[in-house]
Amino acid sequence: MSALPLVLIVVIVGIIIYLLARRARRDPEPAARPPDLRDLSRAAPAPAAAAVVATPVASRAPAASQVPVAYSAAALITKLYELAFGITPLPAPPPAELEAVGAAARTILENVATQPRYAPRRPLLLPQLLQAVNDSDVSRRQLAGIIARDPALAGALLKLANSPFYRASERPVESVDRAVAVLGTDGIRSLVATVLLQPVFRLSQSQFAHFPETIWEHTYRMAAAAEAHSAIVEDSDPFAAQLLGLTLGLGTIVVFRVALDQYSGAARPPDASVIAALLDAHAAPVARSIAASWDLSERILAALEDQARSRVHSPTTSLGRSLRFGHLMGALALLRSQERIDDESAKATMLALGATASQFERIWTRLTTRAQPKA
Question: Is 53 inside a domain boundary?
Answer without folding.
Answer: no
